[in-house]
Structure formats: structure tokens, C-alpha cells
Amino acid sequence: MLLPNIKHPKQLMNLSVNELEDLAVQIRNFLIEKLSVTGGHLAPNLGVVELTLALHYCFDSPRDKMIFDVGHQAYVHKILTGRMDQFDTLRKYKGLCGFVKRSESEHDVWEAGHSSTSLSAAMGMAMARDLKGENNRVIAMIGDGALTGGMAFEALNHIGHEQKKLIVILNDNEMSIAPNVGAMHNYLSKIRSDRFYLRAKDEVEMVLKKIPAIGGKLAKTAEKMKDSLKYMMVPGVLFEELGFTYLGPVDGHDLNKLIDTLNQADNVDGPVLVHAVTTKGKGYRPAESDSHKWHGITPYKIESGQVLKAVGNPMYTEVFGQTLVELGEQDKRIVAVTPAMPGGSGLIPFSKKFPDRMIDVGIAEQHAATLCAAMAMEGMKPVFAVYSTFMQRAYDQIVHDICRHNANVMFAIDRAGFVGADGETHQGVYDVAFMRHIPNIVIMMPKDENELRHMMKTALDYNEGPIAYRYPRNNVRGVPMDTELVPIPIGTWEIVRPGEGYAILASGPMVQLAEEAAEQLKREGISVEVVNARFLKPLDGEMLKNLAETGTSMLVLEEVSQAGSMGSAVLEYFAEQGIHDAVVSLMGIEDRFIEHGSIPQQREEVGLTLESVCQEIRNLKTARTAELGKRSFMS
Ligand SMILES: Cc1ncc(C[n+]2csc(CCOP(=O)(O)OP(=O)(O)O)c2C)c(N)n1
């Protein structure tokens, strides 16, 4: 068995191609076994086993910089760079990260989680190398899905122009998470399948060169003819025209061919694009036959491929998806827009029912946002279904195109709050801070799934501009559901538990935590009111004034970055109103990134727990007693 002895990628150089092939089998078995217990990105990694082996065989990490787009397909790279023993901890708290992580290894040179950054990163490293007068190689591996992202096109444009020496490996498996979409995808399919294109490029160019040169007008015509023949027959001409040397398509599971091609790429003095055709999920039948489902998978039984899902309530995502179908039936103006996440965003039922009103734009959050603005301005009711974390990409479009136009776009912001095993690149904890300062937008968060449904109706009936509802990556609470959906008056909060002297203003899942804290504190003789602060913008000013006037000490409890949170908005409100004696304490997420783990562990790490909330109220009580004591002493 070779695999357990591989501690450093340099060891690969001593192996024969046959041995590398054996190693590929062992790596696949290892991944299938380990991930059956931990879960993780199985299908993407099974698809890049040979590619990663060839990469480490041909190049010299960490001197040569290897950059993995998204970074979810770097498990093989982790195995080959001495981290095999840590796979039992994959994506677990304090364990091996599911993405590239610089603190784990000197071989991890670029971190990601969001897609389409690898080409810009490669270009940056190549430019720095040249400025420093060094000569290491830079290689970026990017999937055909990630290539649909705007950043990737921006980088291609720049790289092709600058002609820096670097290698881009396009890992083309025809899949994003869902089947890939778009004109680039169609173009790549054509290259893969067209029998003309499958001819070696050199062979075609040789034939073209043999057409004799002739003078005058005739020569120009012949040149034009050659060009159009080239267009017809040479694969990858689009990349060639952009300034890349195109090599491929090459079978991404054939180690001999991959090694040859990478060596060839290394000899080119300028940017090269190696087009490798791979099968996502390669070598494990369930993953090969449904790579969408197996992109990121929970634990499973190896023999049957049966996925072991925890039984429990459905996710908020599913309630959103079902309710959108209901609303879609009532209102033909509703269109659902997804940046490459139809399944993850719960839109499959909607896409089946209303295929014409379902728009998958590829990994293109910026384009999706602007598209929504324009559709809204033409009278449609677009729902931009997006994960909080990926919405970060579309900040300018939200400001400039949606909010400034005051367009009636509905935002369905999924994965709001901690997300668990995906970790710091995916936490949905910044959207409140980067949305609430934008004029015109309304932002809501429901305390439970029933309220989510009412919020969706609120958003649909609201015709005065953009409106967002954000919901967590959690199972729903299992509350009774109303059949009739009734809009909630904009900017109104709800008292879910009466109390006196102290109030917790909470949003989303924190409302439940606040209720539990109030129950516990009641046993200690402290009465706490719980407010469902369901509008993060606009705030319920009346209620805030009332709380201040009655001398209630307030605790704002949220699972978002505290800087820029609703809590900050509450402080701003009191400052603006000249109410300087309001007692407000904030609990949110401190100013640092929170790594992977389970959601309860992440909450524990930042103190969003029952005990911390109770303690904070006790602290407020101690402070109040001290203040009262001081006042009576002074009088
Ligand atoms: C900006 C952004 N949007 C969405 C995602 C979610 N996402 C993760 S991987 C992925 C598909 C990537 O497809 P591809 O690059 O072809 O890689 P593959 O998994 O097929 O190897 C998507 C959409 C993301 N990571 N980043």
C-alpha cells in the first residue's frame, strides 16, 4: 500500500505512472471510506484525483504555487501534502478545514470558499513573481462552474493581455453544483464532443500552414480562408483569441496524457489553458450517477450509497421553496433567480412548476442582482434567492441598481447566521451590516417558519422598493402553520413574552434563545420581556421609545456581526432621538472570523448561549442596582 507512506508530494516523483495509477485507486477508496463518516465534498474530489496527482508529479509545491478555485476540491491535495491522518476530523470543530487553509500547510497558498477567484490570484502571484525576479510556476485549477463567474472572465481578459507565464487547468465535468449553464458551457461541450475539435490542434495547424502563400488579393483571401478553417477545426480557439495557448481537450483521468500535457504547458512562455475533461464522482457509482446530490454529502452507507440523514423537522429552505410555489400560482409576475444554486436554495419545486419563470444565471451574483432590478422595473416580481455569504459579491449591484432605482426586488437570503461545517468563508453574518445602511431597503427576519411565510407575502404585497427576508440554515421549529398568509405591517415588532424591567430584542433563531433565557431568569425572580425584532430595518421606533421611557434595560441579541448590526441601529436610533439614558447592551458576533464546526459550537464560541444571555441580563441587573444605590447615596 503506497498511500500511507506519502508524507510529501516530492515522493511522487519517484513513482512510475503505474504506481501513480495505483495510488489514484487508493486515494479514491480512502475518500469514499472517510467521507462516509464525516460527510464532505465527495464528488468534486473523486473527479480530480488524477489531476491533482499529475499536478504534484509535474510541479514542485510549495515553490510552485497551486491555487484551487473554491477550494472544495482540495482534499486530494491535502492527502498528498501530509494531512491524510487528519481526515477523521474533516469539517469538524478545530479539525481539518473543508477548504484550502494556509494555517494548515505551507502547500496551501490561497484560501477560498467563494468561487472564481483563482485566476485573479494566479495572476497576482505571477505578477509578484516577475516583479521580484523569481521563476516559480503558478498553476490555477478552476472548474467549468467557477468559470461562469464574472471574476474569472475579468481575470482571463487581463491575463491574456499581459501574457504572464501561468497555467490554468480547466477541470470540465459539465457540472456546477447543479448541471452547469450558459454559453461558455455550451462552447465547452462543443469542444468536448465535436469530432473535428477532437483532432490534435497541431495537426490541423500543420495542414493549414501547407496551403501555399500567394501574392496580392488572392493571398488575403487565402489568409481569411485559413482563419475561418482554423475557427472550424481548432479546439479552444476562443481561449487562443484571448491570448492563451489552449491545450486539450485531454482526458482528465488519463495520467500519461495529463503528465504529457502539463509538461507541454510548462514549456510555453505565456499563459496556457489546459482543458481537462473529468467525471464528477469518478469511481463511486452513486456519486457518478448523481453528482449533484453528491457534490456535498452527509454521511452515507458505502455499499448502497444510502445517505444517513438525521430525522427532524424540514429546513427553512424547504418552507421557502414550497411557499414560493404557492405564491407563484397566485401571481404570475413572480420569477425566481438563482446564481447556480437551484437545489440548495429550495427552488426545485418552483422550477418544475414554472420552468419559464425559473432563471439560473450561473455563478453570477452580480449579474443576478442587476437582472432582478431590471426585471422589477419592467413590472415583474423577481425573487433573488441567494445565500447570505454569496450575496456579498453583489453589494454594488444591490446599492447601485436595486436600491438606488428603488426596484421591487425581493431578496430571499438563505443561510443567514452561522452555517456550520463550511466555516468562515460561508458564514452568513455580514449581510445585515452591509445592507441596512442602504437607503430604501426593508430587511426582515422571522422567528419561525410560519412567520417566514407571512413575510414572503409581506414582501410580495410591498410595492415600494426592495425588501429582504433572511432565514437561517436550521431546521424549522415545528410551529402550527397558518393557511392564510397575511402581510405584516412594515417596521413593527412583536412582544412574544411580556415582562418588566428588562427586555431582550432578538431576531430569527435568537428569539427562541431569548424565550428560554426569560424562562430561566423568571425562576431567579427576574422578569424579562422578549421582543421579536422581526424588522431589522426599519426599526420599531415606537416600541424602542416606550422601552426607554419605562426605564427598561435592553439586550439586543443577534447572530450577526455586531459591528453594523441591528443593535448598532438601536444605539443610533437613541442617539438620533436624543434619548441618552437608555440602557442597551449588545450580544452578537465579535470582530473576527469564526471557523468551521457545528452551529451550536460556533454559537458557544461567541457566547450566543443560554447561559451567556442569562448572565448578561444578570449583569444588567447588577449594574442597575449599583446605579440605584449610587443615586440614593447622592440624594
Ligand atoms: C460566489 C459563489 N457562489 C456560489 C458558490 C457555491 N458553489 C460552490 S461549488 C459550486 C460549483 C462549482 O462548480 P465547478 O467550479 O465546476 O466545480 P466542481 O464542483 O464541478 O468540481 C458552487 C456554485 C460559491 N462557492 N461561490
Automatic annotation (TrEMBL):
Transketolase-like pyrimidine-binding domain boundaries: 314-479
CDD domains linked to this entry: TPP_DXS (cd02007), TPP_PYR_DXS_TK_like (cd07033)
Cofactor note: Binds 1 Mg(2+) ion per subunit.
EC number: 2.2.1.7
Residue positions binding thiamine diphosphate: H72, G113, H114, S115, G145, A146, N173, Y284, E365
Single GO MF annotation: 1-deoxy-D-xylulose-5-phosphate synthase activity
One Gene Ontology cellular component: cytosol
Residues the entry annotates as binding Mg(2+): D144, N173
Cofactor(s) named in the record: Mg(2+); thiamine diphosphate
Catalysed reactions, semicolon-separated: D-glyceraldehyde 3-phosphate + pyruvate + H(+) = 1-deoxy-D-xylulose 5-phosphate + CO2
Entry's Gene Ontology BP terms: isopentenyl diphosphate biosynthetic process, methylerythritol 4-phosphate pathway; terpenoid biosynthetic process; thiamine biosynthetic process
Recorded metabolic or biological pathway in which this protein acts: Metabolic intermediate biosynthesis; 1-deoxy-D-xylulose 5-phosphate biosynthesis; 1-deoxy-D-xylulose 5-phosphate from D-glyceraldehyde 3-phosphate and pyruvate: step 1/1
SMART domains: Transket_pyr
PROSITE patterns: TRANSKETOLASE_1, TRANSKETOLASE_2
Family designation: Belongs to the transketolase family. DXPS subfamily.
PANTHER family: 1-D-DEOXYXYLULOSE 5-PHOSPHATE SYNTHASE-RELATED, 1-DEOXY-D-XYLULOSE-5-PHOSPHATE SYNTHASE, CHLOROPLASTIC
The protein's role, per its UniProt record: Catalyzes the acyloin condensation reaction between C atoms 2 and 3 of pyruvate and glyceraldehyde 3-phosphate to yield 1-deoxy-D-xylulose-5-phosphate (DXP).
Subunit structure comment from the entry: Homodimer.
NCBIfam families tied to this protein: dxs, PRK05444.2-2
Protein's name in the database: 1-deoxy-D-xylulose-5-phosphate synthase
